[in-house]
Amino acid sequence: MKVFGVILMTLQTALLLAVIFFIYEFLATMDAYGPKIIIGILPLLSGFFAGILLGNVTLGVIIGANTQLIALGAVPMGGAVPPDFGMVAITAVVLASIANIKPEVAVVLALPAGILGMYFDIIGRTVNVGLVHRVDKLIEEGAVDKIDRWHLLGMPIMGLFRGAAVAIAVFIVAALGGEALGAFLKSLPSWILDGLSVAGALLPAMGLGLILMYLGLERYKWYFIIAFILVSLINIPLIFAIVIIVGFIVIWCKHKEALKIEGGGEGVEAKIPSDVLRSSKLRSVLFFEASWNYELMQGLGYLYSILPILKHIYKGEELKKAAKAHLEFFNTNPVLAPMIVSLDGVIESARKGDLDFVRKLKIGLMGPLAGFGDSVIWLATGGVLLILAITLVRMGIVWGPLVFILLFDIVTFTIRFKSFDFGYKRGTSLVRVLTEEKMRGIREFAETLAVFSIGAIIPIVFQIRPVIGAELLASIDAALMIFSVTIFISALIGLGLTLLAKYLYGKGFKILHVLLIIFAIGFILGALRIIGAVGYVSV
Q1: Rg (CA), the chain
Q2: Between the CA atoms of 264, 268, 274 and 275, what dihedral angle is there, to the nearest 10 degrees?
Q3: C-alpha angle 409/339/310, rounded to 5°?
Q4: pTM for the full model?
Q5: Which residues partner with 7 through β-bridges?
């Protein structure tokens, strides 16, 4: 195979690929810790863009879509760092391209890249702690204007470490030599390859199980069961889309009252110039997490975001005191963080110097909005949009990942900009508007839709078929016409492993442990020819 006109067998080519993907990961990380426009570190997008760079978009979306399913619930909520499945997707695309092996086998062989990426990500976040102490010194010296550059420096620092991890993984798999690796794998006994193929096809159970644990399957089990049965039993074109559309309408009608947010008064009066507000808004929307670190998490980003307002309100020693007060631990959902920043600005302007009240307000809103945002925006909304994009890929639309980018950007940027305005206009009345009952209603709508969507996608995610009794099942399917017993049995196997993964997570098992268990079960079932893989995605 040739990439950019060179055969993938030389160390020079391996180094070239490593440099190319270092640049990609560096830019994707800058975006992920900054404006979050492309979200190129997600497995779906990593595989997609890797396919473009290697000249095989179809292969890229196949691997990206199914690696995303493995990682569906492994989002970095709070301060947790899961294995980096985006790097798994990139490495798997490179591996499958140069060794000419099945995508599911490539994903399995590329899993160590996710562990490597996880550790490099941790190192980067740790190095960013130094930025906090540098800014602390700048405040003491009265050099508040220099804070911006040190906060923004966190993005290239993370880009360097994550880019290095990808470069190392790509160089290793490329330097092994595609033809040699492919020949080695093909020389293995068929039962090993069958085992690897089935194991790879069943790994999405770990991601689906994890997201179901977060969302709470028990509360919405009937939505899940109905969606699963309809899609797994009825074998007609577009059944998934039909079920999802009808389900959305039903769930929306049930929760439409909870989705209404009415005004709660004007709160306190604030007089902040529009250019100052605009600067603070853009900072909180675009670069809130640029310096994320293990000491203050988003604390430095919060100071960076509200700094224009502080500089307008305070001068001299008062400004130093206010900046020092805001250089503290803070961690919430970044999409909703602008709301707290703008509300803080209202309080700072109306109650100048009341930093103790501001601190209590920040802490009071930080926790609820973190849980609400992580569950509703990252897991529920993000999960549904990812499932939609993966479904488009299954339908042969290789540009499905771009649909995810478009829809996710529309949702998140609208929320980010509007939440800032909402917090500022409502003032202190925001706390009354966002009552616990109102937030619970919105959360239930999003979680119900997400659980329903997962129930519908399980039958089409697990591309496996029973080997034992396959001919008998085929004849039964032919007689039933629009109903498929084969697909239903395959879906039940996938469902069983998904629920097993959920149970193991609930018992305290780590992601890597669950991965090994699901992999072992899949390998055994495939090696014994009890079930077989029919390919990850039909494109």
Answers
A1: 25
A2: -120
A3: 120
A4: 0.78
A5: 2
Q: What gap in Å lies between CA 165 and CA 106, rounded to an integer?
A: 18
Task: Measure Cα distances from 432 to 38, 151, 376, 439 in Å.
Answer: 35, 33, 20, 11
Distance (Å, whole) CA 91 – CA 107 = 8
Distance CA 419, CA 184 (A): 55
Q: What is the largest CA-CA distance in the chain?
A: 83
- Contacts of residue 99, defined as CB under 8 A and 6 or more positions apart, other chains included, come to 106, 178, 179, 181, 182, 185
| Residue 257 exposed, middle or buried by CB count within 10 Å (0-12, 13-18, 19+) | exposed
For residue 148, what are its two tokens?
Answer: 């911006």
Strands, E assignment, 336-449:
none
Q: How far apart are CA 378 and CA 493, in angstroms?
A: 27
CA distance 121 to 86: 12
End-to-end CA distance of the chain: 21
Phi then psi dihedrals of residue 289, to 5 deg: -105, 20
pLDDT tens, the chain, 539 aa long: 444 443 445 788 889 999 999 999 999 999 999 999 999 999 999 999 999 999 999 999 999 998 998 887 555 544 445 678 999 999 999 999 888 888 888 888 888 888 888 888 888 988 998 998 899 999 999 899 999 999 999 999 999 999 999 999 999 888 876 555 566 666 778 888 788 778 877 877 887 887 788 777 888 889 899 989 988 888 776 677 788 788 878 887 887 776 565 555 555 555 788 899 999 999 999 999 999 987 788 899 999 999 999 999 998 899 999 999 898 888 888 999 999 899 888 888 877 777 777 777 776 677 667 767 776 787 778 888 888 898 888 778 899 999 999 999 999 999 999 999 888 877 655 545 555 566 566 667 777 877 887 888 788 777 788 888 878 877 887 787 777 888 888 889 999 999 999 999 889 888 778 888 988 998 899 889 888 876 433 32
| 219/443 Cα distance (integer angstroms) | 12
In contact, 264 and 426? CB cutoff 8 Å: yes
Answer for the pair 199, 223: CB distance below 8 angstroms, yes or no: no
Identity of residue 292: W
DSSP string, 256-273: GGGG--------S-----
Residue from 450, 476, 422, 81 nearest 247 by CA: 450
Question: Which alpha helices (DSSP H) does 216-336 contain, by range?
Answer: 221-233, 239-255, 274-286, 299-313, 316-326
